[in-house]
Every structure is written in C-alpha cells, then in structure tokens.
Design goal:
heterodimer; A: about 450 residues; alpha/beta; Aspartate Aminotransferase, domain 1; Aspartate Aminotransferase, domain 2; 7-stranded mixed β-sheet; 4-stranded antiparallel β-sheet; B: about 525 residues; 2 domains; about 35% helix
Amino acid sequence: MRYLPLTDTDRQEMLSVIGAETIDDLFIDVPAEARLSGTIAGLPDHASELAVERHMGALARKNLSAGEAPFFLGAGAYKHHVPASVDHLIQRGEFLTAYTPYQPEIAQGTLQVLFEFQTQVARLLGCDVANASMYDGSTACWEAIGMARRITRRGKALLSSGLHPHYVSVAQTMAKFTGDALVHHAPTLDAATDIDALIAGIDEDTSCVVVQYPDILGRIADLTPLADAAHAAGALLVAVVTEPVALGAIKAPGHMGADIVVGEGQSIGVGLQFGGPYLGLFACKQKYVRQMPGRLCGETVDAAGKRGFVLTLSTREQHIRREKATSNICTNSGLCALAFSIHMTLLGEKGLRELATLNHAMACQAADRLAKVPGVTLLNDSFFNEFTLVLSKDAREVVRNLADRGVLAGVSLGRLFPDASQIGHGLVVAVTETVTPEDIEALAAALEEELA
Amino acid sequence: MTMLKEGRPTAPQAVATGHMLPATATGNRALMLEEALIFEIGSTDTTGVDFADAPQVASRLGSLTRTDAIGLPGLSEQETVRHYTRLSRQNYAIDLGLFPLGSCTMKHNPRLNEKVARMPGFADIHPLQPQSTVQGALAVIHELARWLVTLTGMHSVAMSPKAGAHGELCGLLAIRAALEARGDARSVVLVPESAHGTNPATAAFCGYKVEDIPATPDGRVDLEALKARLGADVAAVMITNPNTCGLFERDMKVISDAVHAAGAFVYCDGANFNAIVGRVRPGDLGVDAMHINLHKTFSTPHGGGGPGSGPVVLSAALAPFAPLPFVEKQDDQFILVEEETAQDHHGQTFGRMVAFHGQMGMFTRALTYILSHGADGLRQVAGDAVLNANYILRSLEDVLDAPFGGSGPCMHEALFSDKGLAEGFTTLDIAKGLIDEGFHPMTMYFPLVVHGAMLVEPTETESKVALDQFIMALRSLAERAKAGDEALKGAPYHAPRRRLDETLAARKPVLSWTDPALAVAAE
C-alpha cells in the first residue's frame, strides 16, 4: 500500500481528535446491510511495484506495436513521429498533476498554453476562434451538428458518405435522442467525392452539411461550392479534419467557407494509444462563438495591470447554466492539447509544411508502387497521405492474413462499413513520414503473394 | 433550502498591498520568470525538428495546395523546452502540495502508471489493428472491466465514455433506450439541488426536462418530496452518493426502491466513489447506472483539465442497451464486439458514443493503480480518505461554520460555509489567501445549497504532516477573515498573478492572439 502515507499511529491520533474509535465508525451513515465487513471476495490483494510492472509488461508484449512492423493504418488515427521533448514536457508534474484552471492566479501555465493552443488551432483550420479542446474528433463532430441546430433552428443535417463511419455512428446515436434528422449513405468506390450529391440534397430544412476533408477514402475536394450552396440555403458547412497534418499542405476548410471546423488532433503530439485519449479540435467563425461548446480561454489583466489568462464565457457552460448549457462537457483533453501545442511549436509553420510535404511524397510513392501489384487498383485521383486501394478480394481477409505475415496493411472498408458489402474490396492505406521504402516493398510483396 | 445564484465576485477590488517590492527591469523575480507568448518570441521560419528530404513526386493535391501564410510560429528545441518549463512553473499541482478541491479527488498520480502506459505495446498500437495483434490490450480492458463490475456489485460496464459527463450521457441514454424498448417514453429527470452542473446539463442534452429535488436541512435528498414527485412521467433520478455536501445518502436503498416501484431508474453520479470504494457496492443500493471517473478514484492524472475516462457500470436491466464496442472473452481469446458483430450478440445496443474504443491510455493507468492497491488497499483508500476529511472537519469546526457538522461524520470531503466571517469578507478571500499560503484553494461556492460553500477534499494520499500544515493555514485565514483583516481582500500577493479580471475577459473576449502591428493596420 505504497501510496498511503498514514501510519497506524497517525490514524489513532486523528481518530482521537475526531472522537471515533475506528475508521469503520466513520461509515455509520451507510446502512448496516450495505456496509461490507471485509475485502471484496474474488479480487487479489495489493502487489509490489515490480509485480505490477511485470504483469502489465506481459500484457503489453502480447500486442504487435506499430513500430515493430510495416505499418499503414490510418482511418482517423495516424502514426507520426513525436519528438522526445513533447513527452518529456507533458510529464512535468506542474502540467500532468494540475486540475482544470479554476484558480487562474496559480494556473497561468495551463491557461497560457490553452490560449496559444486556441490560436494555433484557429490558424491551422482557417477559422477565427477555437476552443480549448473536446474529447475527440467524433464527439466534436456531433457537438458541431448540435451547434448548427441552435444557430439555424433547423433539425436536418446532411452527412457526407466520406465522413468517418464512427463519427456517423456517434451522431446517429445522439440524434435518436435529440430528434435531429440525419441523412447519410455509405460511400461508393468512386474517385470523386459526393459533393455534388450533397449540394443537390440541401433544402430549407437543412441545418448543416458535414463533410470530411480529406475524407475516409483519402479523397480531397474543394469545399467552396458546397459552402456557397449551403449558405445560399441558410445552412452551415461543418468540415471535419481527421488528419490535421494535411493542413500543412492543403487549403484550410475555414478559408473555403466552412462555418465550423472540427477535427481529431491526435496526429500532432499524441500517440496512437489504441484509440484514446485523443483530442477534439473545435473552431468556428467569430460570430458563432457564444454558441460554441466547451471551455474557452481568454486574455485579461490582473489587479496590478499585468496580462493574464482566464477561462471565460462560462455562461455557456454546465457549471453555470446547468440544464441550459450549450453542452454537458466538463473535463476535456487538456494534456493532449498541451502535447498538440508543444509539437506544433516545435514544428512551426516551416516544420509543418516540411512534414506535410514528406507525408505526401511518401504516400505518392507508395500509391504508385502498390498500384503495380496485380489485383490492386488505386481509387483516388487526389489524396494527401492516405488513399484507397481496390483489391481483387475482400480486404478484411487480406488484412487479417497480412497481419499473420507481420505486415499491418491498412484498414479494410469491410471493418469500417460492415453493412456495405459492395465496397468490401476497399483497403484504406495511410503513409506517413514513419514509413520507409522497405516498408512499402514489404507491403507490396505481401499483397502480391496474398492476391496471387 | 434554496439554491444560491448570486455567484462569487469576479472582478478584483483595488486594495493597497501594504508593501511594495522593488521592480526589476525584466519583470522577472528570480525563479519566477515571465514568459511571452510563442507568437511574440517565435517565427514561422524557425523549427525545432528536422526531416529527411522528401522525394520529388508529382503532386496529387489537385488545385488545393495551401499557399497562404498560416501564421504558426516555431521555436528551436531548446527554446521550446524552456518556454514550457517556464510556463509549468506558473501552475500549482498535486506534485507541489495538497490540492483539496472538493469533488475532484486530487490524489497522488503514481508514476508507475505513466511508465506502463508508455510501454510500446500499449502506447503504439492502432485502434483498428486486427484483433489477433492486440490481444494484450483487449485483456487490459477486460481485466479492468471485471474489477469495476466487482467493486461496484453491478452487472456489467460500458468502458468507452471519455469522461464523467460523457458517462452520465451514457447512463441516461441506456435508461432512455430501456424505457423506449418497453414502449414507455417518459419526459422528466429529477436532479437534487446539490448536484454537479453536469447532471442537469446531461439530462437536458438527452432531451429530458429537468426538475429539482429539494434538500433537507441536514443536507440530504428530501425523501418525502422525491416520493411525492415520482410518477409515470419520471424516467430517472440522478443522485450523487456520497453527495456533494460530503454526506452519505442514508436513504439510498429506500430511494431506489421507490424509484423502481414508479417504473423509473436510478442514476448515481460516481464522482465521489473514492469515499466508499471497497466498502460499499452501489449495486447493493439499487443503483442502475453509475459512472466512475478513472481520473478521480483510480488516480489517472487530471492533466490540467483532462483527459478523463468515465466507464459506466450498469444493472442487469440496463446492460442490454450498453453502447458499442465492448470486449468479451471466448475461450482464450478476447473479442472486440463492434458494429460488425453486434447484431448477433447485442441487438439492443443504443449505439456508439465515440470513435474507437475509449480511453485506453487511462485504462492501463487505472488498472496499474488498482493492481497496486488490490482489494485490501482500495478498502484502505476509502477509509483513509474519509479519515482525513473528518480530521479536517473536526480540526476547523471551531473557527469555520460546518453546516452539517452536527449530523455525524462526513465522508471524503468536509463542507464549510462563510457564516461568521466579518462583514464584506467572502469565501473567495479565504480561497485566495490559501494561494499565498502555498495551497490550492478548496472548491468554492459549490454545492449551491450552502452559502459561500467551501468544499475540502484532502484525499487519502496526504500525510498527517501535510494535513496539519493545511489546517494551520486555513485556521489562520478563517481567523483573519473573522477579524476583518483588510489585507486578505487583496490576496493573492505572492502568486504569478494577482486576482484576474474575469468580467473584462467575458465582456470583451480575446480568444486568440492578434499581432498588434496587424491590429493597428486594420483600424
């Protein structure tokens, strides 16, 4: 019990101050029949640090980590190199073991980071303002749909077929309870995105159009016509970015007319971690800021006139507004936002552009090489660092078999869209700066054997 | 009892400091270093990283190449390390001292947890890898789930919610799905006045009308008022137990029975589970759903505002409606049940709440912590947490008003009010005074049922030496506030900043940095 500092002598002294005989006496308000007299059966007792580390290490070794194999998975979570200083800095106890900055005089470190983070995110996404983070991209996406409903007072959202299916599922789950109507179709294996179909679907009931950029198949398209069509009908454009590194190479959604831009920030500063914790990015036009969910950090001055930062506009939030809040979110992803911000500061605009250029170049090389494998066709005309291959057989089986050969090949569309068997031959392949030419050859060779 | 809505002062008053320190040219004060924004010290052509040269390829970006100046400044690695190290030193943290923020359970974050979470087998695996390559990760989720279910005496657990409020959402969605499955749509959720703000916000988010349940003078749910309100329109009652006054709801089982008899469900806010872990199983009290903040009870770090993790334990009645995905064990294999396989196993699920599988990085940390303590250690955790809180309560009730001090022991947090302070002195003054004394303030002005509430949660990881020092500091501040020591109104004096003007921040929001040169040019 190495994390419990009280000694038995301490406990006795404290009990005598309290006027109780035993610790059990302090639980007198718990009805006797609900009070457990001893430890819960069927669970082990305490263990040493060494023993626990051994147990957890054994479990960790049962996983094939991304660094151990040629690795090509993306679809909303990306393997990038995170500089060593990022993880070092987020482990400083003053960041790691601080709480939400409710006492700003002794939380200026966290608050200034959040102010810098908000500015970085707004600029990256091409928006006026960003919040201090959401749980992840999928929940940020749903919050954007809800925000569009509040702004337009309309309840129908059009979801692009290129939107990550988990994001669609999250929105569908919530919409069942809020009454929002969501229009969505599974994607088809076309080189072109569904922007024309979305434009055709916009009507006077539409609150927003939600489009992913680059989309789940890796395709990229100019969002300007979609933004124009949405605005002409009084609707908003919500853009979703699951790979923020892309915005070092391609135009920002906010600059193409998107009203709200949300995203998954994991790519910058945060490791894969089997899906979480990640961080949701959330940005919008200035005029909508009071409808935004989540925490916001703002600049102010202290009693001595010095610049400082505080959480602000909290009249939108649950601890003040209770049932009238814009969202129920409380804890968000502060430490992941810190990691994002540190990594972005290390990169700077120069480094971000170099990183994006390298990702794109490696992806182009991989796409060309893999398209030469018999039984493989490249779907995309355009892409950033992720593209879709159409295989001569079901990609789910191919992915499983290649894993047995020690190659982590990508994400099958069958896993992402189990109800859409017509696209089951699709394989989404991500290629980042961590992929080597040897990895690409290993994937090509394994695919060639598997599809032969 | 009534809710207090006037809130707390948000703008500093001009008060003479009483002592003037000589200024420095830089604004720095020895180890206390001022730090400019990255936008003021960095530049867009500076970078702290380097990459291999990109091979020359024909662009596939179409016409979408980004050509604008993005405006992201970079710093060299050394400057980056210094920038964030300097900023970190402007934060208070558990690693520096006692952090008695009521209802937040700021306990020590063991570093073994951090080490384990960074093992490549956990940190560097993709959520969509083939299941054969992530059996160890699925085993962690399964093992943690078994602990949570056993510790709470519940039927099953939904692991994916991202934080406490997200867990509340999960629980209420399961309740709503269960009601709809039996063709019994209901419209109202009852929430005690003392509840966390997330409770009513969550209920409203799920489309329910929220109604308050009053509290009794001894700080607990008014059972008779609750019974009188129950009816065919009530879907659920959300209760925090131990409650936000730091008291155990003695009538919990009676409440649950009455709620169930009325056809509704009991949601328990598990934010305060640290007080009873290993000693009381919520399942024995009739709870249908309860979130567990892994970042409170199970020691995963708060990180300056997250990430959290809020698994939700569920009763047998709600289990069929749990969200996807979840982990099952079949023979020696762990299976991730997601959309692809859900229809066969789990056709009544209310759906998916997040992309992927939840906060794996928090699961590894929480399981590491749980295995370290074991069943016996966790029982001692609750015992020591409650002991520490009662020690503070009884050590200070002669100088601070303890509104429920007469009704018996508190649980893991001690509640005081501002009654008895000199005219014009507030809870805020005491809180800011604590900053100067080297402590993080307690939770202030919450719960709303107590005037000028001060909610002190020391947690079990504080030594008696630390508690005695905190008690001494708070006693001194209480005495100063009762004596009308005007200097207290200017506190803090010794923090990186004096009181900040929150009113100004809200009236003219500045939410991102603008280059002053550009701002002038635009005018």
